[in-house]
Amino acid sequence: MTISLRNRPAGVAATAAALALSALAALATASPASASGPAPATALTPASASSAEPAAPTLPHPTGPYATGRDTLFLTDHTRTDPWVPAAGPRQLLVSLNYPARPGTGGDPAPYMTEEEARLMLAQRGLDGVPPELVSDTGTHARTAARPAPGRFPLVLLSPGFGTPRATLTGLAEELASRGYVVATADHPYESTGTQLPDGRVLTCAACDKVDAQPDQAARREVLADVSAGRADDFSFLLDRLTGPDPAWRHSRTIDPRRVGMAGHSIGGNAASSTMAADHRVDAGVNMDGTFFDPTPVRGLDGRPFLMLGTDPGHGPDTDESWDDAWARLDGFKRWLTVRDSGHFTFTDIPEIGEQLGIEDPDAPLSAARSTTITRSYVTAFFDRSLRGRPARLLNGPTPANPEVLFQRP
Question: CA 124, 192, 21, 36 torsion: positive or negative?
Fold first, then answer.
């Protein structure tokens, strides 16, 4: 399989979407294929030859004390027209809500993604013959219709990368829920390879087409900045529907609206800073390996904490100017961490799924176990500190247990 999972220079035509599609396609087959995009590719190979049909992967079990439940919300914002397909009418969101649950309650494990969503990702890469259920049947741990645990919990918003389904952040969402957070992960309409709505309609990536249609890199960057700013509008609307006077979620009473954080992967990480700049209800943010197409405001984020967690060297100092600029502007508690041997999808479910299917990426040799442990540990520590006031020694400096994690710029 020919593919690169590393982050690429800002503005390469539909780079993020192409990488997301290629990565997920690679999970389903080791047959030769070629990745789109002009960036140099890295060989992705099966770890061992086998004629046995691979089993569907399973996400690592959450490590917190709570069982977890999951609900799904389909919301319509009648105050906005969809920016990518105005003819579609009002902006809509499909949201997964993971939450701390009472043990032993609920039904079946929540699905990872629909088979049609998986099929679209594979078809986009010319892999129509690969059974899409290999990805869609990935095992999760949250139970549908579980009863919420007693108490009120901080809320964390999650935003996926451009062209990437929200499902790829499921492992992090389940981990945070097991640690006592309500987690709302959004699919942004027309910004993913395929989002299947409750009525069966499937929305594809019109935003990707718009990026591709731009005449140069500067124009593509402007569109991607619009993606990030538009997601800020999405999450402000979502906060209204989760914490306002007429909440859309049946278990909204479990959310403490005074403690809200946001994290995202790739452009979803940029959206975390965009949302904080636009909505003061968001108290803390995490950017996982995303270029700041929409710059952090010159004024900063009014002293609110922010974590930049990236690949090394892809998001080390002086390798992405937008990160250097953001770092200089952030005016609250801040950390800039990079992870050795990581790739652009290290902070998602992709390493776990790929490794279980026997796929290796020589360009990102960090193991799935370490990818999962680092992502969960540092993101949770940051939100524990920022939203709960708990000590987070992990963020004080390098530790022997995590030699891959580098602290950049004091």
Answer: positive
CA 386 – CA 390 distance, rounded (Å): 8
Residue pair 273/292 in contact (Cβ under 8 Å)? The answer is yes
Separation of alpha carbons 274 and 349, rounded Å: 24
Confirm if 306 and 284 have CB atoms less than 8 A apart.
yes
Nearest to 31 by CA among 56, 3, 6: 3
Per the listing, tokens 């124009």 go with 219
Distance CA 254, CA 241 (A): 14
Residue type, 334: K
Q: Tens of pLDDT along the chain (410 residues)?
A: 323 333 333 333 344 444 444 444 344 332 222 222 223 333 344 444 445 667 899 999 999 999 999 999 999 999 999 999 999 999 999 999 999 999 999 999 999 999 998 788 767 655 566 578 888 999 999 999 999 999 999 999 999 999 889 999 999 999 999 999 999 999 999 999 999 999 999 999 999 999 999 999 999 999 999 999 999 999 999 999 999 999 999 999 999 999 999 999 999 999 999 999 999 999 999 999 999 999 999 999 999 999 999 999 899 999 999 999 999 999 999 999 999 999 999 999 989 988 887 777 788 999 999 999 999 999 999 999 999 999 999 999 999 999 999 999 87
- Taking the C-alpha atoms of residue 93 and residue 104, their distance in angstroms, rounded to an integer, is 30
Q: Please choose, from the candidates 289, 201, 273, the residue with its C-alpha nearest in 3D space to the C-alpha of residue 235.
A: 273
d(CA 175, CA 377): 10
Whose tokens are 């100092």? That residue is 317
Please, are residues 320 and 286 in contact by the beta-carbon 8 Å criterion?
no
Q: What share of the chain is helix, strand, coil (3-state, %, to 5)?
A: 30, 20, 45
Quote the tokens at residue 376.
Answer: 């969960």
**Alpha carbons 381 and 309: distance in angstroms, whole number:** 13
Whether the CB-CB separation of 60 and 26 falls below 8 Å is answered with: no
C-alpha 98/C-alpha 116 separation (Å) is: 22
Q: Between the CA atoms of 261, 315, 38 and 117, what dihedral angle is there, to the nearest 10 degrees?
A: -20
DSSP state of 327: H
285 neighbors 314 (Cβ within 8 angstroms): no
| DSSP codes of every residue in 171-218 | HHHHHHHHTT-EEEEEEPTTSBS-EE-TTS-EE--HHHHHHHT-SSHH
Unique residue bearing structure tokens 């993606």: 227
